[in-house]
């Protein structure tokens, strides 16, 4: 279920998502329900056709929306979803991500860090596919609710030959059981909504109605009132926050991975030489 503008929604603000490379851009709109009246439920709706690819402008729009809500509105709950029927997000724009060395440390990781430590409860409402970076985005939120009949959640980097960066993999180690982590990363398994709920990848199946009921049942609008919600999350996820989602952490891990890759190349070359020599 997409959160298209409805008569019972009030628009709080809209940010543009500028074009980037092959991505035409779009908008991010924040609305709040009028029925029932609760000004502390904030719905961020991404609309960046064709599939909400994660680009620097999209990350900037989300970061700006999160700042606006924290510093200009009462503490509440932030629900992020999509206006596109088929996609929550189809992940990174790989051309953009690979061509811009600043994208990961200064656009994507700051967004992940902001969500992981945000001082209000955050919910990803997955109305459609959440592939690769789209699922990573959802995993950095506190809760996930997924359409039971449309869309898959998966990490499909294995299929197109791009290894996960340490900061991308870290969130799955923290939030998934080892078996599900293996299915996601080493099998590129596609989880439908029902299966995703069964294995704990999402908390609930449904749409906006079920999400609103989930918020009410768990009294999530009250959780940020004391001002320590973000601090609690910083401690919960400190290894990920401090070790991977900073510019320094990114640089350190890039160097570590570079050494591993070079070591693998040397190992394979040595192995090929030895195998070839043994056949002479």
Automatic annotation (TrEMBL):
One of its GO terms (molecular function) is delta(3)-delta(2)-enoyl-CoA isomerase activity. One of its GO terms (biological process) is fatty acid beta-oxidation. One of its GO terms (cellular component) is peroxisome. Gene3D superfamilies: 2-enoyl-CoA Hydratase, Chain A, domain 1 (3.90.226.10). InterPro entries: ClpP/crotonase-like_dom_sf (IPR029045), Enoyl-CoA_hydra/iso (IPR001753). It holds the Pfam family ECH_1. CDD domains: crotonase-like. This is ClpP/crotonase.
């Amino acid at each position: 279920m997409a959160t298209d503008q409805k008569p019972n929604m009030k628009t709080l603000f809209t940010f543009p998502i500028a074009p980037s490379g092959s991505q035409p851009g779009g908008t991010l709109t924040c609305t709040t329900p009028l029925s029932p009246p609760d000004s502390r439920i904030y719905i961020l709706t991404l609309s960046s056709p064709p599939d909400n690819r994660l680009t620097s402008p999209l990350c900037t729009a989300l970061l700006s929306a999160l700042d606006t809500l924290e510093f200009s509105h009462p503490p509440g709950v932030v629900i992020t979803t999509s206006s596109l029927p088929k996609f929550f997000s189809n992940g990174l724009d790989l051309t953009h991500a690979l061509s811009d060395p600043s994208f990961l440390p200064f656009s994507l990781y700051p967004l992940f860090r902001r969500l992981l430590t945000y001082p209000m409860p955050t919910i990803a409402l997955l109305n459609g596919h959440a592939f690769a970076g789209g699922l990573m985005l959802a995993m950095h939120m506190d809760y996930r609710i997924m359409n039971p009949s449309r869309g898959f959640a998966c990490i499909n980097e294995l299929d197109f030959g791009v290894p996960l960066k340490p900061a991308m993999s870290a969130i799955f180690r923290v939030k998934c059981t080892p078996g599900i982590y293996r299915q996601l990363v080493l099998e590129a398994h596609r989880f439908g909504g029902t299966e995703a709920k069964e294995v704990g990848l999402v908390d609930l199946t449904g749409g906006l109605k079920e999400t609103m009921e989930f918020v009410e049942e768990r009294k999530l609008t009250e959780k940020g009132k004391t001002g320590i919600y973000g601090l609690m999350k910083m401690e919960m996820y400190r290894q990920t926050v401090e070790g991977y989602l900073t510019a320094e952490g990114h640089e350190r891990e890039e160097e570590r991975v570079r050494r591993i890759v070079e070591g693998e190349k040397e190992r394979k070359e040595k192995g090929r030489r030895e195998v070839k020599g043994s056949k002479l």
